Queue: 3 jobs
Job 1
Amino acid sequence: NIAMAAQMTDAHRRFLQVLMSHGIMEGSEARKLHRRCCEIHKVYYAHDKLDDFISTVNSHLQPLFMQIRKGMSEGDGRAHYALVNLAETEITKMASDYTENELELFRKTMDLIILSENGFASSTDILNLADQLKTKKMKKKEAEQVLKVFVEDKWLSERNGEYTLHTRCIIEMEQYILSNYQDVARKCNICHSLAIQSQVCESCGIGMHLPCVRKYFRAQTEPRCPQCNDFWSCDVP
């Protein structure tokens, strides 16, 4: 086997352990960690080789059906790295951490977010679902606590009483969402990743992440859709 993956070193193992304990890591943090792991274990370090370093880890994770994946924050467009379990859908993975009716609340929250216009669901709408759960009705106070835990565990993000999917959730659940919400889930026309918070072309219906919209239209005085060339009617953020 000539294409044998580059050797896993203690630097790679440490990187993986730290990432596992965080679940997700912002790009700049991952770059710092890469450097620190190489320095501690006296492994060759090159600042522009993080993706190669991660590829080495991934080739050794393959038999375990795990992978470090790169994604971006839909708010500011920053790169993030998350450890993803490929063997099971993330919802089944979550089952070991939450009760059945907590998971039902999460699924229903996900429905609201993905089916919404802007990729957000209000706490009012989510809490109204609490007493309609099939598994076991939940009091609003209890549901508020559960939402708090989902935010702490980086499955949801909250801003001024509005909830959206956390970057970690999007990276880990991309395949699950694309296959379970086939008619509504869309990929960004620019970066081709799943787009939850997006702007949509009124003429042809393609979606774009807000950071991708900003980048794409930066130099254009009259923004036009990259797909159909019609005038882009949304306000460029």
Job 2
Amino acid sequence: MTTQKVLTTDKLAQQIQACAFAQLTGWLEIEDPQGQQWSLSFHLGRLTGGTSKMHPIRRWCRQLSVHCPELSADSVCQGSSAHAVYWDYQSLAELVRQGKVPLRQMRSVVAGNCTEILFDIIQRQEQLRCGSSEQLTYRQIPQDTIDSTSDSSLVVIRADQIWQQATLAWEPWQQAGLVNISPSLAPVIWDADQLRQQTSLLAYHNLTTLVDGDRTLRDLAV
């Protein structure tokens, strides 16, 4: 498990493609100089999921709300004794096995989850490229050195498709000059009185309701 540096975004794309060509079953683990980690899981060279410590439950809930709207927000995100919790891969896989959620919807959830993770990796790489001599590092972890589950290959997705979706999302973000602004940040309204003077009552109500300092830019986009 040799650790190597990612010098450019193209190099990152090449490494992900290398995992596909080598039919990797295992993980591609990527880390920035500050210790932030992302992991992409593969089964025979195809993506089966991804993980990141940055808002993992919120990201999963966001994808469920888009692709599995039949699962209530309470069931998905709040998790009390009166509600089932569907915020991870295994619990959603169980619903697929029970016939309660179509496999295509789970595939969309996993694809959306991986796309967001890849977007974040690309953004971090570009931030380092523009303002630091440090780079991301990566290493492959073969299947025989990690835990496996029977559901790990229920959904498999071509890595190049997810990479394309992530870059399509990243390019306009970069062109808008937002390289250093993470979509995982939550905007706040600093001067509500001034906002009220410059907007209609309806716009003011909508903005102050939605922009509450808790919802991230990604949450607001859903």
Job 3
Amino acid sequence: MAGTISICNGQSTNLTFTFTGTGPWNYSYSDGITTFPAVAAVSPANVSVSPTATTTYTLVSVSDANCTGTVSAAPVTITVDDAPSVALGVTASIGTVCSGGTSDIEVAASETGVSYQLRNNADNSPVGSAVAGTGATLLLPTGALTATTTFNVLATRGVCPPAQLTTTVTVTVAGAIDAGLTVTATASPICEGTSSSIQIAASESGVTYQLRNDADDSLIGAPVAGTGGTITISTGVLSAATTFNILASNGTCSIELTNLATVAVDVDPDPALTVTGPAATLCTGGVASILINNSEVGVNYQLRNDADDSLVGTSVAGTGGVIALSTGALATTTTFNVLATGGVCAPVELTTIVTVTVAGSIDLTLPVTADQTVFCAGGDTNINVANSEVGVDYQLINNADDSALSGVVAGTGGTLVISTGTLTASTDVSVLASNVSCAAKLSTVVSLTVNPSPDLSLGLSALSSTICFGTSTAIQVANSEVGVSYQLRNNSDNTTIGAPVTGTGSTLSLPTGGLTANTSFNVFASIGGCSGQLVSVVTITVLPSGDPLCAPVNNCATVVITPIETPARVVPCYPMVR
């Protein structure tokens, strides 16, 4: 039983049951809700079905004149598409356009999964490209018009017959307005929360100009009358970049000016972000990190000495998360502030200032090395701290945000070996040293490169777990990862079977080849320099030569079920999924 087919809601299709063995046959099947009782049949047997939703049909039982067969036919899924609604509202954004102007045909409450094609109603010729429904109003451009035109909209979903929406719309063409006027923004970019203006050069007397948001043609402010010269229309307050168009009207017709104007908007920095420094006193000569939580994308953050606002290091771009600003080596207690700058917006000093107290000393120049600096995701390495000091504690931290990577280890006077723990991404590792007086990072930062690893927990299954002597099946890898190579192997000695297959994001099938004995299989996955054996192992049972279930005569019934559109396939005597 195999295959997939689609029908439109309200239509029917046939399931075709093709049997082997000796008739007459009895079989039953299920649609996932109801099991239909066993009925006598000839081969092939056709059953008409009319599902109203996507349905998977499975074989429940089968028997012939000799015996009861083993149910192993694969399921058939029938996908049901709903016909598109033809009663949607259809209107024109501009009912009367000037010669050469354009309008948009608006389809209200468009349906997701439906494609809408604008057509000239005179001959149903397509206008522009089809547009996918979104659940909201769609805009279908008419293109430039030189004569009055009536439009219709053709809706299409899946295998259902295309349907023309009930409402047609006529766009009248009359009069003329110059649509080629120059349109510019007086200021761009601007700061978030402020406004700009759109200027129209050489405006025409007797024509009014309406500013609109080009994304949805929503109106902005009131129309402004042309003067013969340049006119200016305010954008209103903006919080994001916006593109504007202009609708020109003269009482006879309307037309959208050809030129658009875009106003870019820079982020106005939030001064109330949380700013923190080290919790402990910093050792003399140590370097601290000033952390900013919820940094804003589009904003740069500059650390400054609060005594004179002198710059400390270079500015760091916001990421939306935590960022760290380095103080550099400090010899005395210092107070810091942070200046945030967002494009053309006025720089803002964050409200919170941080004082780093400096006292005490620790040797911060100790050698720091890693056992390995490149390894696979899910692995770890050891960081070695030579000549550790007695009375000093050492801890691995992520240099990006000072988060802990290990527990605290007491110095011994010799080399300390501290594990990073499992890492899944490349990481810069620092060592935080502390004693009763102060704490500071050792001078050396170790950069660890962590390469992606294949997911070894993917599910494995057999297309058929029991097969006849000398036949083959396939081992399936569910949810294979794109870019990962999968190699089938004999689990007894890891000999490779066939060629490796690259993951696609969906299920892969790895052929076993012909088998003459029970065999267990594993799959070896690799990407780049990272690899591993998937956790699951699959065993295939091979029936001996001459087994009654594999004999050429007097075999029990088997069955293949297919939609009528799919050619029937007769399987070998032993019922199994192919």
